[in-house]
Amino acid sequence: MALPPTPSQSSSEFLPKLVTTLREGYRPADLRADALAGLTVAIVALPLSMAIAIASGVGPERGLFTTIIGGFLVSALGGSRFQIGGPAGAFIVLVSACAAEIGVQGLLLATLLSGIFLVLLALLRAGSYVRFIPYPVTIGFTSGIAVIIFASQIKDLLGLTLTGGEPAEILHKLEALWAARGSLNPAALVLAVGTIAVIVTIKRLRPQAPNLLIAVTLAALAVVALDLPVETIHSRFGALPRIPPAPALPDAALDDLRAALPWALSFTLLGAIESLLSAVVADGMSGRRHRPNAELLAQGAANVVSPLFGGFCVTGTIARTATNVRAGSHGPMSGMLHAAFVLAFMLVAAPLAGFIPLAALAAVLAVVAWNMAEKEEMWALARHSRADAVVLLATFGLVVFRDLTEGIVVGFALAGLVFINRMSAGTTIRESRVPIAVLETEGEVESGVETAGDVVIYHLSGPWFFGAAARLGSVLDQVSDHPRAFAVDFAEVPLIDSSGAYSFALLARKMARKGGRLVISGARPEVRRALRRAGTRGNQVIFIPNLAALPNAVSKAIPA
Question: Are residues 49 and 73 in the same domain?
Fold first, then answer.
C-alpha cells in the first residue's frame, strides 16, 4: 500500500521546473541555448497559432494572444522542463463549435472556467490519474481530430465559397463542400498545393529549417508579386493589432455561466489529457520526468489569464514541445522566450501578416492533420489486438461523427471492459487432493469430487475481483455443493475487492446452512480484512496460515 506523501513531497508536487532549473545553476551558455530554442519554436508557432485560431472560428490575433500569454505562463509555472503551451489543433473542433454556439465572449468565459477546473484537478492531485488514458483511446481520438481538422480546411484549401455557411457536422460539411465545388478557386488550390510541397520538401532536405514559416512567407510573396485573387488574413479579418489588449473579464451573467459550463468541462478534460500527453512525450525525448500536478496547475493558471487578454484555450502542444527539445532547450526559459519572440513579431511585423493567404494557412493545418493521424499506430493496433482495435475504432468513429468528449468517455469505458476481461482471464482455480492428488484442472472444477479419505483443496491464482467473481462464480457454486472436506488456498491471491470478498461470504453462509465451515488458507492480511468486511463470521470461516495447518482445521470444518 502506498504511503501518504510527506509535507515536503506534497509541496514539491507543485514546484515549477523553472525553480528547479535555476537552483541547479543557470549559466550564460544555458541562456544562449534557451534563446535559440525559443526562437526556433516561435518561428514554428507563428503560422500555427494564426492558422489554429482561424480554423477555430476566431481572429488570428487571438491565436497570437494565446501563445504569448498562455505560452509564457505554462513554461514559467509548469511541471515539465520543456513543455510549450499555446493553442492546439486538438481544440479546433471544440473551440469552433463553442464559438459558433455561444459566441466569442462565451468562449472566453468557458476558457476561464476550464482554467479554474484545471487548478482544482491539480489541487486534488488528479494529474497522476489523468495520464492513465488507455493508448487505443489516445490514438483513436487523436486520429479522429486529425480527420476533422483536415475536413475543416477543405474550404480554404480549394478557395470555395459557401453561401449558407459551413456546417459543423462532418457529413453535412462534406455535402455542403461538394455542392459548392463549382466555386473552386484555382489560384487558392495552386497556392495550397505549393505550400504543402514546400513544407514537405524542406522537411525532407533540411529538417532543421523552419519549413512552415518559409512556406507561408513564400505564399504571401507570391500573392503580392502576382496579385493573386485569393483571400488573405487582411481581406477577411483586417489588420492585426500590434499588442495584446488590456485585461478584461468576459461577460459572466448567470445565463452566460450556464451556457459556458458544458464547454468548460470539455475543455478541461481535453486540456488535461493533451497537456500531460505532451509532457510524457517530452519526458521520452529528454529522459526527464515531469510533475503532473504542477503541470495541471500551470495549465489552469494559463487558461484563467489567457481569456482576460482575448486568448482562448491553452494546452501543451506536442509538435512545438518536440521542436523545443530537438532545438537544444535547457529548460523552461526557452518557452518563456518563445512567447517573448512572438510578442516581438506582433510589435514589429504585425502588418506584414495581413498578406498571408488563407489557403497557405489551411495547407499548414492539412500537414499538421496528416502528422497527427497516427496511421502506423492505428494499423499496428488493428493487426495485433482485436479488442484494442474495437476500442480504437469506436473512439475514432465517435470523435469524427458524434462528439469528442463522447468518444473519449465511450472509448475509456470499452477499454475498461477489455482490461477487466483480460484480468479475469488471468485468475484461475486449480483443484488438488490431500493426501493423494487425483485431479488437477485449470479454471474449471468437475462435479462429484468427493472421495473417501481425501481433502479437496481449491487453489486460487490471480486477483479475485468483480470480473473474476462473475466469470468463476459458477465454479464456487459447484464447490459449495460438496462441503464435507475442502479448503480454499489464497496464497497466490494478491488482492480481492468487495465483490470478490462478498462471493466468498455467500459461499461461507451457504456452507454454514449445511453444517460445514469454509477453510481459507494463506490469505494476506489485507485480503483477510476484506473478507471480514464482506460479512464472513468466525463461526462460518476458519483462517489458517498455510496448508500445513489443514488437518486440524478440517476436523473442525466437517459437519457432524
Answer: yes
Which of 383, 416, 449 is the last residue in one of the domains?
416
Q: What is the DSSP letter of 59?
A: -
Q: Are residues 90 and 204 in the same domain?
A: yes
Residue 163's CB is within 10 A of a number of other CB atoms, namely 8
Do 370 and 456 fall within a single domain? no
Does one domain contain both 400 and 447? no
CB within 8 Å of 298: residues ≥ 6 apart: 16, 73, 74, 76, 77, 78, 79, 85
* Grid coordinates belonging to 231: 483571400
pLDDT of residue 481: 57
Answer yes or no: do 488 and 400 share one domain: no
- Taking residues 129-152, report their average pLDDT: 82
DSSP state of 548: G
Q: What is the pLDDT of residue 43?
A: 87
226 burial type by CB count under 10 A (0-12 exposed, 13-18 middle, 19+ buried): exposed
Domain annotation covers residue 422 = no
Q: How many domains does the chain have?
A: 2
How many residues can be counted in the chain? 560
Q: Which three cell numbers stand for residue 362?
A: 489551411
Question: Residue 431 belongs to a domain with what CATH number?
Answer: 3.30.750.24
CA atoms within 13 A on the CB side of 399: 32
How far is Cα 272 from Cα 133, in angstroms, rounded to an integer?
11
Cell numbers found for residue 522? 494463506
Q: What is the 3-state secondary structure (H, E, C) of 384-426?
A: HCHHHHHHHHHHHHHHHHCCHHHHHHHHHHHHHHHHHHHHHHC
pLDDT digits (tens, 9 = 90+) for 415-429: 888 888 888 777 888
